[in-house]
Write a structure and sequence with these properties.
Elements (H helix, E strand, L loop, with lengths): L1 H6 L2 H69 L5 E7 L4 E4 L15 E6 L10 E10 L3 E8 L1 H51 L15 H51 L3 H33 L6 E4 H18 L3 E6 L4 E4 L1 H18 L5 E9 L2 E8 L31 H11 L3 E5 L10 E8 L23
Parallel strand pairs: 7-9
Antiparallel strand pairs: 1-2, 1-5, 3-4, 4-5, 6-8, 9-10, 10-12, 11-12
Helix pairs in contact: 2-3, 4-5, 5-8, 6-7, 7-8
Length: 483
């Protein structure tokens, strides 16, 4: 699988393209060398044959047919290896001289007079079969003359050169492919380091930075630029967070005074209409105070990190307490409230924070599930993870909003008309992060008009050795919030 992913990388594809260009260049170069070498050797053979023909023509002009026969016989006698090939016959193929007994079958096939044929027994050749090249022309007096050379060694040399070119091309392609793979693998490793770090940063680990090798190459420069960008983003985020936290902190006290004054006024007002107006003002003040308190709680959770008061907690007992608290609220809406709580599921954590997280999720499920709907609370052990699930049959969360709902003040479009401030699941996310947990979202009834929502919280289960077991964290999750 890793090999397939390696082959799909852009760096390997670029290396493959370079390999094709390089191999094509090598092929063209070798083909040109072969063409020039083979052409030169063939031309040299033809020139040798032409020179012998010129010598025989001179002998024929000076000594006639008898002189031609004599010189052919002398040359055959001086050439024991039979590199030169001669055949002189009458028009009716009667042999007069030469080291062949008869004409090749294709002796009349070429208009230029040049032929290539095989020396064998059918031609009166006494040695092993060999390749030959010759030229045929007519001599005055009705004679026919063949003058050629044994080119078997030349042909074998060409074959050796062709084989060398083929092997050279194969080795070139193999080395280029190997080099491209190694180069892309080295590049992919560095890119994967950047990708892995980026994914962890996107999952909330904003303190991480992309490592560098100290070589000051392109990747190091890219990593430095990304790290500087992350530093700037974190600085701006912290600034915005501090401003919002300070505003929440500074406004909470005057809002509390305002709320108390309104409540005092409510007691003294005799007019029913005025009492109703003041009552609504008190409710609005309570809502504002709840929002500011939630902001401050989230800020405290995010700054305290993993320094919460961690103790051994029975998750099933904690969920039972929360269910008893909210079951009456569910009965008021005539909802079916189910519980499937496995016993003996324990975790290490802050009991108060975990209770607040569980309460928020159950409260959300009751709030966004219509009357006569179904709510199911589940506690189970899944391998090394303690799992807490809340399933409802409510309005659900659209897929395109599931990656945004943990943001502060974000509310799903369908829920904007309902009471809430969009901070509930931000608080849940902060509590889960402190406990090294993971939140997953999915539709309870996929494909239906009201798909509902299943919120799954996976926390490290207690291992029995007073050590925390880290929950499995996939790179991509279906996280969302309903607020």
């Amino acid at each position: 699988m890793k090999l397939l992913s390696q082959l799909r990388t852009s760096s390997f594809q670029l290396a493959l393209l370079y390999m094709v260009v390089f191999a094509t260049s090598v092929f063209i170069l070798l083909a040109f060398i072969y063409w020039r070498t083979a052409g030169f050797m063939t031309a040299q053979t033809d020139e040798t044959i032409e020179a012998e023909i010129a010598g025989l023509a001179e002998q024929y002009r000076s000594g006639g047919v008898n002189g031609l026969i004599t010189i052919i016989r002398e040359r055959v006698a001086r050439d024991p290896n039979a590199k030169s090939i001669y055949l002189l016959t009458t028009d009716d193929s009667l042999k007069l001289a030469g080291n062949l007994e008869t004409w090749p079958d294709d002796s009349r096939a070429s208009e230029t007079g040049w032929i290539n044929f095989t020396l064998n027994e059918s031609l009166g050749w006494t040695g092993p079969e060999r390749l030959a090249r010759a030229r045929i022309f007519e001599v005055q007096g009705g004679l026919r003359l063949l003058v050629g050379r044994d080119v078997d060694d030349l042909t074998n040399l060409k074959r050796v050169i062709e084989a060398a070119i083929n092997w050279g091309m194969g080795i070139t392609l193999a080395l280029a492919l190997l080099g491209g793979f190694l180069m892309s693998r080295s590049t992919t490793r560095r890119i994967e380091v950047i990708n892995n770090t980026s994914r962890r940063i996107m999952n909330g680990h904003l303190s991480l930075r992309i490592p560098t090798r100290g070589t000051d190459d392109d990747f190091d420069q890219l990593a430095d630029n990304l790290n500087q960008m992350l530093d700037r983003i974190v600085y701006l985020m912290e600034g915005i967070r501090h401003v919002s936290d300070n505003i929440a902190h500074d406004l909470r006290t005057p809002l509390t005074r305002l709320r108390n004054q309104l409540e005092s006024t409510l007691i003294t007002v005799d007019n029913d209409e005025a009492r109703e107006h003041v009552g609504r003002a008190v409710a609005e003040a309570d809502q504002l105070l709840a929002t500011f308190n939630a902001l401050l709680r989230i800020a405290r959770l995010e700054t305290r990190g993993n320094t919460a008061d961690m103790k051994l907690v029975a998750l099933d007992e904690l969920v039972t307490d929360a269910c008893e608290l909210y079951e009456a609220l569910s009965e008021d809406k005539e909802q079916e409230f189910r519980q499937q709580l496995a016993t003996g599921v324990r975790i290490e954590g802050d009991r108060d924070l975990l209770f607040q997280m569980i309460s928020n999720l159950i409260d959300n499920a009751i709030k966004y599930t219509p009357e006569h709907g179904l709510i199911e609370v589940v506690v189970r052990l899944d391998g090394s993870d303690a799992v807490f699930e809340v399933k409802d049959s409510g309005i659900g969360v659209p897929d395109d909003e599931k990656d945004q709902v943990f943001q502060r003040f974000y509310r799903v479009g369908k829920s904007r008309s309902l009471p809430g401030n969009g901070l509930g699941l931000s608080l849940v996310s902060a509590v889960a992060e402190i406990h090294q947990g993971q939140i997953l979202l999915s539709d309870t009834h996929p494909g239906e008009e009201k798909p509902g929502l299943t919120v799954t919280v996976r926390l490290p289960a207690y291992s029995g050795s007073r050590k925390r077991i880290k929950a499995t964290r996939p790179e991509t999750t279906d996280e969302s919030e309903k607020a």
